[in-house]
Structures are given as structure tokens and as C-alpha cells.
UniProtKB/TrEMBL annotation:
<feature type="transmembrane region" description="Helical">
    <location>
        <begin position="130"/>
        <end position="149"/>
    </location>
</feature>
<feature type="domain" description="VTT">
    <location>
        <begin position="28"/>
        <end position="151"/>
    </location>
</feature>
<keyword id="KW-1133">Transmembrane helix</keyword>
<protein>
    <recommendedName>
        <fullName>VTT domain-containing protein</fullName>
    </recommendedName>
</protein>
<dbReference type="Pfam" id="PF09335">
    <property type="entry name" value="VTT_dom"/>
</dbReference>
<dbReference type="InterPro" id="IPR032816">
    <property type="entry name" value="VTT_dom"/>
</dbReference>
<feature type="transmembrane region" description="Helical">
    <location>
        <begin position="12"/>
        <end position="39"/>
    </location>
</feature>
<keyword id="KW-0472">Membrane</keyword>
<feature type="transmembrane region" description="Helical">
    <location>
        <begin position="101"/>
        <end position="124"/>
    </location>
</feature>
<keyword id="KW-1003">Cell membrane</keyword>
<keyword id="KW-0812">Transmembrane</keyword>
<feature type="transmembrane region" description="Helical">
    <location>
        <begin position="45"/>
        <end position="67"/>
    </location>
</feature>
<dbReference type="GO" id="GO:0005886">
    <property type="term" value="C:plasma membrane"/>
</dbReference>
<dbReference type="InterPro" id="IPR051311">
    <property type="entry name" value="DedA_domain"/>
</dbReference>
Length: 162
């Protein structure tokens, strides 16, 4: 395993996930880091899951808050450049309003949507309480999936990461 992962396992995991959840592009997805820390011989299930949940809540709250404050203005001004029209926004908003709790949980678990979900939730003014509740559920599920993967496939990860 890379030495920095072993040396900074929980703190490193928190920093990496926080950055990713806040919208900072990283060369590898956070999933790999969760599985890698879980594969360490002395890793602790409770500490990993707790770290993932808190890092997810902290980082994604940044995107959520930015979307609440600036999302509409940004999409109104620049949406046309990425083919997001006011009509498309209204359609998504209707759908999101109907299925918001489901959308937050499932969106957080689908690769590629995990980072977009807090932005959409903030854009459509989901309450902080609801956002945190469903994000915490999704982060708990996410942490468990990659904890299990790390435990069962840790030896393969170790060969891959050197």
C-alpha cells in the first residue's frame, strides 16, 4: 500500500473525501480510497464509516450551499452553453420535488451523480435537515459497500497500488 495511505488513513480519507465532495476534481474517485483504507490490516469499521459520513456531509454541504445561493443565477446566465434551458430546469425541478428523498439517496450512490446531487438539491431549495438526513443515509450505504469491497479484495488493491 502507498505509505501515505497507511500513515494518514482516517485523516487522509477525510481530507480526500471532503475535497471530492466539495467539488474539487481528484484523479481517483473517493471509492478507491475507502476500499484502500478498509483493506489495511488494522482498519476499524466504525472509524471508516464515521469518517466517510462526516467527510461527505461536510464537503457536500459546501456545494449544496453554493447552489442555494448562486445556482439559479449561474444556470440562467451560463446554462445555455451546456444545453440547460429554463424549460429543462423546470422539468427536473418538478421531478425532483416529487422524488427528492429518493433522488438524494440514489443520486449519491450512482457514480457520476454523487457530486451533482448536492448541487441539484441546493438549487431546488431542499432544507438542510432533509439534505443532511438523506445524504447521511447514502454515505452510510456507500461506506459499507466500499468497506466490504476493501476487506474482500484488499490483496488485489494492494497489488494494483503497489
Amino acid at each position: 500500500m502507498p505509505e501515505f495511505i497507511e500513515q494518514f488513513s482516517y485523516l487522509g480519507l477525510f481530507i480526500i473525501l471532503f475535497a471530492e465532495e466539495a467539488g474539487i476534481f481528484l484523479p481517483l474517485p473517493g471509492d478507491i480510497f475507502i476500499a484502500t483504507v478498509a483493506a489495511l490490516p488494522h482498519s476499524n469499521y466504525f472509524l471508516i464509516v464515521t469518517t466517510v459520513v462526516f467527510a461527505t456531509l461536510a464537503g457536500s454541504t459546501i456545494l449544496f450551499t453554493l447552489a442555494q445561493k448562486f445556482g439559479r443565477k449561474l444556470l440562467t446566465k451560463y446554462g445555455k452553453y451546456i444545453k440547460i434551458t429554463p424549460n429543462k430546469i423546470k422539468k427536473v425541478e418538478k421531478w425532483f420535488e416529487k422524488y427528492k428523498s429518493f433522488t438524494i439517496v440514489i443520486g449519491r450512490l450512482v457514480p457520476g451523480l454523487r457530486i451533482v446531487t448536492p448541487f441539484v438539491a441546493g438549487l431546488f431549495n431542499v432544507s438542510y435537515k432533509m439534505f443532511w438526513f438523506y445524504t447521511a443515509i447514502a454515505a452510510f450505504i456507500w461506506a459499507n459497500i466500499y468497506f466490504i469491497i476493501g476487506r474482500f479484495f484488499g490483496n488485489i488493491l494492494e497489488k494494483f497500488l503497489g
